[in-house]
Amino acid sequence: MARAVAFYMIEAYIDAAMERAHYEMFDDETIYGEIPVCPGVFANEATLEQCRRVLKEVLEGWILLRLREHLELPVIEGISLEAPQLA
Description:
Elements: H1 2-19, E1 22-25, E2 31-34, E3 42-45, H2 48-68
Antiparallel strand pairs: 1-2, 2-3
């Protein structure tokens, strides 16, 4: 049950972060996307759909890295993720 709750929280966090993504088209017609509340999370791809997919992958990796390194994650829409403390 705890894993199901944890999975739900991570999915809700990712969805909330992706809703805050900003996209723009560069002069070369590639699409740049970033999530300002998550520093360093960005992507630059040929289409908007590719940019969204890669941006989500980058976000997932960013979350895992921050959890592994016990770095703070921003609270998004009241959702807070924290790395579990090992005994």
